[in-house]
Automatic annotation (TrEMBL):
Membrane protein topology class: Multi-pass membrane protein
Subcellular location as annotated: Membrane
GO molecular function, one term: protein transmembrane transporter activity
PANTHER family linked to this entry: MITOCHONDRIAL IMPORT INNER MEMBRANE TRANSLOCASE SUBUNIT TIM23, TIM23
Originating species: Pedionomus torquatus
UniProt-listed GO biological process terms: protein import into mitochondrial matrix
Protein's UniProt keywords contain ATP-binding: no
Tree of life domain: Eukaryota
Record's protein name: TIM23 translocase
Amino acid sequence: QDTDEFILPTGANKTRGRFELAFFTIGGCCMTGAAFGALNGLRLGLKETQNMVWSKPRNVQILNMVTRQGALWANTLGSLALLYSAFGVVIEKTRGAEDDLNTIAAGTLTGMLYKSTGRV
């Protein structure tokens, strides 16, 4: 049978648009950033406290580093994903086309805006 599995409203696309995918992109980047930051924080915490004996102060210091780095990376990647998604949606709506040029332009504008703040 070659019938569709889902009932779609009249005029609806069978694929998700860029706006619907933006939420997945932003959330995924936040979660990825948090996981990477937590691992990086664990590495840094263990490195900075290697001369300490295992005790509550060492555990607290490692935990602080994990949460600090996790939040930092989650915010950074989430902000970049938000900028990328917003630029992508605006460019798509402005041009009225869904193609790779939108992706390239959104990535370029996001990188330019991120680097314009003077961050290395």
